Amino acid sequence: MHILKICSSCGKQTRLYAEFSCPHCGEGVIVRCPHCRETINIYRCSKCGKEGP
After folding, report:
1. Which of 5, 14, 26, 52 has the fewest other C-beta atoms within 10 Å?
2. Taking the complete model, does pTM exceed 0.90, yes or no?
3. How many structural domains comprise the chain?
4. Using alpha carbons only, what angle is made at residue 20 by residues 44 and 37, rounded to the nearest 5 degrees?
5. Each residue's pLDDT tens digit, 24-43
6. pLDDT for the residue numbered 12
7. d(Cα 32, Cα 13) in Å, to the nearest integer?
8. Distance between CA atoms of 48 and 53, rounded to whole angstroms?
9. CA-to-CA distance for 31 and 11, rounded, in angstroms?
10. What range defines the domain where residue 44 resides?
């Protein structure tokens, strides 16, 4: 069973995702759905506010 997560880019719930620590601060958690990863949508870290592709 997969856990639902909220995509950091589009805000939609997804069962398929990539999850990683913010490359800038290392504290925030970034979640990306397959669509946003494929289309290189911008995400924003909830801890430091840094944006990335």
Report:
1. 26
2. no
3. 1
4. 65
5. 999 999 999 999 999 999 99
6. 97
7. 10
8. 15
9. 10
10. 5-52
Q: Match 């909830």 to its residue by tokens.
A: 46
Tokens of 44: 């924003």
- Round to whole Å and give the CA distance between 41 and 18: 13
Indicate the pairing of strand 43-44 with strand 51-52. antiparallel
Please determine, for residue 1, whether its predicted confidence score (pLDDT) is greater than 90.
Answer: no
What is the enclosing helix (H) or strand (E) of 35? helix 34-38
Token pair of 10 as six digits = 């589009």
How do 18-21 and 29-32 pair as beta strands? antiparallel
